[in-house]
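Lab notebook, design round three. We kept the backbone fixed and only want residue identities now. Task for the bench partner: fill in a sequence for the structure below.
Input structure tokens:
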């Protein structure tokens, strides 16, 4: 009888193998949605999205595409700047125009005070060489607003009120030279008073 008493085997804890059940749950996590990269790259080649990055830039090409801009009144934009900062503001406007696809030959920059350094440099080679660059029309041209009667009109005129008289006559000349867009860089109170005078 003692031999039979020694035979009871302790129950093996193999029931714990049922704990492997959680291994099934990772398989269930496979139901997570897999990304489909196929439709993603198709919208990338669209050239339209880069244009509206700069709100002012979006206006410039729109005005440039009008075929009869010379017969219409150009759009006027004012960039507030002090007399000392007007030339820098004009340079930034030119950079923006070029960055948005405007051809350099489409831009005329007029100054009311000290001439732009480019103009001063080119004038050192003589008036004939200076105006020959204007007539070629291959690059941005810088001129004194008071002596711009010889300059032909261009689609865009940037007017820098960097000292000297930024009066109605000077702005009238600038507007007459602008085919599509006139950008005026100067002190807002002075420019608005002149613009309000019927320029």
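Proposed sequence:
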């Amino acid at each position: 009888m003692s031999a039979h008493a020694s035979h009871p085997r302790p129950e093996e804890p193999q029931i714990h193998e049922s704990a492997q059940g959680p291994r099934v749950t990772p398989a269930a996590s496979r139901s997570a949605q897999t990304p489909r990269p196929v439709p993603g790259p198709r919208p990338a080649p669209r050239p339209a999205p880069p244009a509206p990055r700069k709100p002012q830039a979006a206006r410039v090409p729109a005005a440039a595409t009008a075929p009869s801009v010379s017969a219409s009144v150009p759009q006027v934009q004012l960039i507030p700047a002090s007399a000392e900062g007007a030339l820098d503001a004009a340079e930034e406007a030119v950079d923006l125009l070029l960055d948005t696809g405007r051809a350099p030959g489409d831009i005329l920059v007029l100054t009311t005070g000290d001439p732009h350094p480019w103009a001063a440099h080119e004038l050192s080679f003589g008036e004939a060489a200076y105006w020959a660059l204007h007539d070629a029309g291959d690059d941005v041209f810088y001129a004194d607003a008071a002596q711009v009667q010889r300059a032909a009109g261009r689609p865009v005129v940037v007017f820098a009120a960097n000292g000297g008289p930024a009066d109605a006559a000077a702005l009238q000349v600038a507007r007459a030279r602008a085919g599509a867009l006139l950008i005026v860089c100067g002190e807002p109170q002075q420019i608005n008073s002149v613009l309000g005078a019927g320029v």
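Keep this in mind before ordering anything: The mean pLDDT is 73.
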